[in-house]
Amino acid sequence: MADDEEAVELVGGSEAAADEGVMSASLYDRFDQWRSHRYILPRHYKLQTEEDTRKYSLWSVNFMITCSAINTKMLNPNFAIMCNPYSGNPASFESTSPFGFNSATYFIPMCTLIGVAIASIFIGTMSDRLGRKSLMLVLGWISAVGSIVKYFTRHTFWGFCISNFIFGFFLGNLPIGMAYVGDIEQNQKKKEQLLGMVVGCFVLGSSGGGIIAVLMADVGLFAPLWVGAGLMVIANILSHKYMIEPAKNVVEKPIDIDIEDKFTLNEDDEDVKRPEVIDQKTLWNIVGGALLDNIGSTGLFPLCLSPLALETYYAQFEMKGEEP
């Protein structure tokens, strides 16, 4: 009888141990689930905790802005040949009516820049509502498609101008990049450096985009558009992979691991008091100055083509066998 009771106790003890083991395994499983799935921090915290992730995100934004600027100015060296029906190039427009050579050469890039300028007015506010990354990707993919559409509208002057104007609306992502820097950087000096880099990438793409047309001169006047489309596809893929959407209405500040620095006063880290409302007079002075500066610098473009315009003028009469 005693042996039976002892056996029962052993069996009961083994069952309790088994139950305890099952419970421990269950707790470990629940802990792993809690750690891996339920309470993972949002991805935007990586902008604070991981320096490499932050760097790759910024570079993907800069690359997207550079590619957009390249697409804006890429065909500029070829406009003079496109708008000259007597250039001997079969890809030139048959007619640029009602414009002459000089006006048509200026009108094509103006169509793109007007679209970019109008879009830049609203694009910042739209990115506040829709998100920086999502809107950046939308503009990027439409720009890639736009380069292909512009290639297939190359047969007529007005068809090409209209496509340039429409897809110019989707090349104005510079304000998004500048707003993105403001979202992820709080330190004023570092923010100014990052903004300078963003603007520098835009200027680099604008000034260097024409090199593609020069290098592809023997391929075709409109062939660079395919390169532009390819660059936008690459930029979109990189942005989709590396760009991280910042937290809304939160200015992220990288976490400083060095504890001693937290107790050291640094002038760069002092809070900068910013006005809640922008002074309208100052704002419009800046806008007006930038507008006049662009008009003045862009207005030089036709003047630079004046010798070519004069040569074209005489060539048209010679082709017709008439005296100028």
Summarize the structure.
The chain has 324 residues and is mainly α. It is built from 14 helices and no strands.
Low confidence ranges: 5-12, 15-23, 249-270
Number of strands: 0
What is the average per-residue confidence, as pLDDT, rounded to a whole number? 75
Largest sheet, strands/sense/barrel: none
Terminal CA distance reads 132 Å
Percent helix: over 70%
* Beta-strand fraction estimate: under 5%
Shape descriptor reads: elongated
**Structural class estimated from helices and strands:** mainly alpha
Query: Roughly how many Å is the radius of gyration?
Result: 30 Å
Order of helices and strands: HHHHHHHHHHHHHH
**How many helices does DSSP assign?**
14
Account of the 3D structure:
- This protein has helices at residues 2-38, 46-49, 51-73, 79-82, 101-130, 132-152, 157-168, 174-184, 188-208, 210-215, 224-242, 259-262, 280-304, 306-320.
- It is mainly alpha-helical and 324 residues long.
- Helix 5 (101-130) runs antiparallel to helix 6 (132-152) and helix 5 packs parallel to helix 7 (157-168).
- It is elongated, with a radius of gyration of 30 Å.
- The model is unreliable at 5-12, 15-23 and 249-270 (pLDDT under 50).
